[in-house]
Amino acid sequence: MKSLLMCRNRKILGETKGSWTPQQLLPIPSFYPTAKQFQKHSAMEEWNKTTTGFFLLGLFPPTKTGLLLFLLVVLIFLIAFLGNSTMILLIWTDHHLHTPMYILLSQLSLMDLVHICSTVPKMATNFLSGNNSISLVGCGFQSYSFLLIAGGEGLLLASMAYDRYVAICRPLHYPILMNKRMCLLMIAGSWVSSSINSMFHTMYALCMPYCKSRIINHFFCDIPAMLPLACMDTWAYEYTVLFSTNLFLLVPFLGIMASYGRVLLAIHHMRSSQGRKKAFTTCSTLLTVVSFYYAPFVYTYLRPPSLRSPEEDKNLAVFYTILTPMLNPIIYSLRNKEVLGALQRVFGRSLSQKV
């Protein structure tokens, strides 16, 4: 287009032979793409037509600011990986932590590990290599892992809230209501039910025809970000997404709020100041984790599609896919004397054996 306008202007200059006015020349807008941008866009479109995979736009721009943000995310990833791995190691090696509460906590750390390992390494590879493509199998793995952990963690947090409710409000019945068998059933139920849900949504999303584009405006294969690319009416499927969101996020969240409401009321009526302080510390820790996890999740997935913004959804996803897995082990270790004690025992034992 730019070359056509330039040819048109040369023709005007040749025909008028000096009698032309600046108003006769057709302006060449500055917003036309440069040759380099046009080649990149053409290459992307050609890739879009021939590939069976997808193209992730990513989280950071290829600038110095983007590089600094990328290094920050890598640091957060390393802290989350080390913190959650340490929590799992402590809980399974120290017999003092072999209680339902800490067994559930070890599963939370395991889910956080899967959560952050399924998104950040691929995002880092794409940013460093400049190749933002992802295969169909890789996209399916990301979608399945994300949905598996998202649903499972919601149910697991509800189980942890129920554990605290029984421990504080019905302490005499705790050995019966929250024995190890019940704890294992809760864990298995969280993994199995979430696995079935994630399998259904992943298979359906990958089987949809994508004839509009394969460029996903996200840093991982998030199904709501993939739906606008499908060349079919997805309104019926969007209702199943809403149903799953309510089942695995909203219902557990309401259960958590109800449990902690009863717990806080029971704490208020406690006569022992030491018991009140310990119970309040434990519950405030769990509420902090729940707030960081649920607030951006619920805001993102329960809004109508007309009010959603791809950029806003992508930024909010950083909270529950990157920040929360880092904060969980920090919150539980720094505010829990039993975990700190286990840390001293395990590492103190290791150091003494070396000496």
Brief digest:
The chain has 355 residues and is an all-alpha fold. It is built from 13 helices and three strands; from the N terminus they run ααβαααβαααβααααα. Strands 2-1-3 form a three-stranded mixed beta sheet.
Please provide a written account of the structure.
- Residues 11-41 have low confidence and may be disordered.
- A 3-stranded mixed β-sheet has the order 2-1-3.
- It has 355 residues and is an all-alpha fold.
- The longest helix has 34 residues, at 136-169.
- The chain contains 13 helices and 3 strands, in the order H-H-E-H-H-H-E-H-H-H-E-H-H-H-H-H.
- Helix 3 packs parallel to helix 12 and helix 4 runs antiparallel to helix 6.
- The termini are far apart.
SSE layout and pairing:
Layout: H1 2-16, H2 35-50, E1 54-56, H3 64-93, H4 100-117, H5 120-129, E2 133-134, H6 136-169, H7 174-177, H8 180-207, E3 215-216, H9 223-226, H10 235-268, H11 273-301, H12 310-334, H13 337-354
Parallel strand pairs: 1-3
Antiparallel strand pairs: 1-2
